[in-house]
Amino acid sequence: MLEAIKNRRSIRKFKEEEVPRYMIEEIIQSGVLAPSAKNRQPWKFVVVSGNAKADMVSAMGNGLERERERPLLPNVSQYISGASYTLKIMEKAPVTIFIVNPVGVDIHSSLTEEEHIEELCNAQSIGAAIENMILTATELGLGSLWICDTYFAYDELQTYLNTEGELIAALTIGYADEAPNARPRKSMDEVVEWRD
Ligand SMILES: Cc1cc2nc3c(=O)[nH]c(=O)nc-3n(C[C@H](O)[C@H](O)[C@H](O)COP(=O)(O)O)c2cc1C
Question: How much of the chain, in percent, has pLDDT values that exceed 90?
């Protein structure tokens, strides 16, 4: 497991080679084994590959175009070109898994304190599931990219997914066609405060 943690990288170049279905099943199975607040297991997975990719790409592409003209997230518009690049990666990758929270609150709603806490707990649970998934992908010799640029096309992807719940993230998976170096990490001194 430590090897997978050390060797995992975000992969942005994938080979066209198909990923066997049993591997995708194993990756999702490792996601559902994650711990979750109150054992709510706040996740659903929509697996997009093959001919189904075209509608996904078109939905996110339309969302990014709309975001440029009528932004839902005007304060982070500097990241839209990055999101277009992410979409190109999703177009090329053989598989994208959307992770939806079936009990999540729409990003347009305001929240009570209790709902806010439940959302935070669900987000942590989903993060644990996705981490399990990307480590399993690494273990299986696959590359992966955890994606939240999908928020720029939130409404369009919600319509495309047509499933109850809140879109949380996407995960592209495939055989890596690059071997990036590890990106820098903050030092232990920067992030840890010991209280003895
Ligand atoms: C919640 C989350 C969202 C991310 N969203 C994107 C994304 O939309 N597009 C992208 O190219 N990378 C995305 N990444 C990947 C990060 O850029 C990457 O994890 C970080 O730069 C560290 O690099 P490494 O994963 O290779 O260690 C995301 C990562 C996380 C955890």
Answer: 96
* Residue 54, ligand 1, Cβ within 6 A: no
In sequence order, which residues have a C-beta less than 8 Å from that of residue 49 and are 6 or more positions away? 18, 19, 94, 95, 96
* Cα-to-centroid distance, 149 and ligand 1 (Å): 9
Nearest to 43 by CA among 56, 34, 54: 34
22: pLDDT confidence band, cut at 50, 70 and 90?
A: very high
Band of pLDDT at residue 26, cut at 50, 70 and 90: very high
CA nearest ligand 1 atom 18, residue? 10
Q: Is the pTM of this model over 0.90?
A: yes
Quote the ligand 1 centre to 67 CA distance (angstroms): 21
Residue nearest to atom 9 of ligand 1 (CA): 147
pLDDT of residue 13: 98
- Closest protein CA for atom 21 of ligand 1: 183
CB neighbours of residue 15 within 10 Å = 15
Which domains, ranges and CATH numbers included, belong to the chain?
2-178 (3.40.109.10)
